[in-house]
Specification:
- The protein is mostly beta strands.
- The chain has a domain at about 120-215: Thrombin, subunit H (Beta Barrel), CATH 2.40.10.
- The chain is built from one helix and 26 strands.
- The chain has one helix spanning about 15-35; strands spanning about 40-45, 50-55, 60, 65, 65-70, 80-85, 90-95, 105-110, 115-120, 130-135, 140-145, 150-155, 165-170, 185, 190-195, 200-205, 210-215, 220-225, 230-235, 240-245, 250-260, 270-275, 280-285, 290-295, 300, 315.
- The strands form seven sheets. It has a four-stranded antiparallel beta sheet with strand order 5-2-1-26, with helices on one face.
- The protein is globular, with a radius of gyration of 20 Å.
- This is F-box protein.
Length: about 325
């Protein structure tokens, strides 16, 4: 296990002084373990700590420097992270207030290293949020407007346009975005699965929405790995995994069944799937994590996380702004 770092609590009489020392130590430790490569990291987010796994970390003194714990304290008091999405060094977080538990919360872009926080404005027309995506300084939101029609909106965090949400378009009633899926960014476009066996392609430059048929009838899972789009068929989870790779130029899917010796004969189900670099991580319901190496076609178990990973995994590329 990697180094463990925690910040002090507010009840500590020396909290302000030790908070500054802890933050500096966090940055130094991350610089030594994570910032000297451009490789993405697997991230689990808890109420007051980030648990980061450096896949492919080099061995040092016969120990694998893999899991790293980074304590944090949000700059806004009484704030809790209800949900999060990631893009490079930044996290898009949905902040809820412990003082107003029934308030839907608000969105902010946060860099855990610099602890910088930027609040996003209200949506242009979304009344009920379905899901979000974050990538290349853009946030894409899918939700229902006041007419109960699914609408797609986009916001540029670098303010390349006016600092407001812009409507990209509306979807047919039969093709609503699936609520349990996040919107993924790859190669300049955003992708998300919809109902009725289709995938929505969101082009932020042309402000265009395109629906593409998907080949598998079962409930699939969309992931991004090494700048490639994959789809996993859940009906194969009991014994093997079927990966469908998307050809962005031909708009064609290619299937590739993969046997997993660790899943055969097992009653464990897969809770979350995430692409990390050249690997795909499968978080099982017992909190163990399976890794499939796309390059070498090898399965392996990741060493246990120092806490039970109840939150869905994120991808993080820690850098100081």
């Amino acid at each position: 296990m990697g180094d463990s770092i925690t910040t002090c609590t507010d009840t500590d009489s020396e909290a302000p002084k030790r908070d500054s020392v802890s933050k500096e130590s966090n940055i130094i430790t991350l610089a030594k373990h994570s910032l000297n490569t451009d490789s993405p990291r697997l991230l689990f987010l808890t109420k007051d700590a980030l648990f980061i796994h450096a896949l492919g970390a080099q061995k040092k003194d016969d120990e694998l420097c893999s899991w790293l714990q980074l304590g944090f304290s949000l700059p806004l008091p009484h704030s809790l992270i209800a949900n999060a999405w990631s893009a490079g060094p930044h996290l898009l977080i949905l902040l809820a207030s412990s003082l107003s538990p029934f308030h839907p919360g608000h969105l902010s872009v946060w860099n855990p290293l610099s602890n910088s926080l930027s609040k996003l404005p209200p949506f242009a027309s979304i009344w009920h949020l379905i899901t979000l995506g974050f990538g290349d300084n853009m946030v894409v939101a899918a939700g229902f407007d006041c007419n109960i029609q699914c609408v797609i909106e986009i916001y540029h965090t670098d303010h390349r346009t006016s600092p407001a949400w812009h409507v990209v378009g509306h979807l047919p009633l039969s093709s609503n975005v699936q609520e349990h899926d996040e919107i993924l960014y790859c190669g300049g476009c955003f992708y998300v699965l919809c109902m009725e066996s289709s995938m929505l392609v969101i082009d932020p430059q042309a402000l265009k929405l395109t629906l593409q048929d998907i080949p598998c009838p079962s409930t699939p899972k969309l992931i991004i790995s090494n700048d490639n789009i994959f789809m996993v068929e859940e009906k194969y989870f009991s014994s093997s995994v079927a990966l469908w790779k998307f050809d962005e130029k031909q708009f064609h899917w290619r299937a590739r069944p993969i046997d997993c010796p660790y899943l055969q004969g097992s009653s464990l189900k897969i809770a979350y799937i995430k692409g990390v670099g050249m690997s795909i991580c499968f978080v099982l319901e017992n909190s163990s994590i399976l890794i499939y190496d796309l390059l070498n076609h090898v399965w392996s178990f990741m060493e246990d996380c120092p806490f039970v990973p109840t939150s869905r995994p994120l991808i993080w590329e820690p850098r100081i702004d």
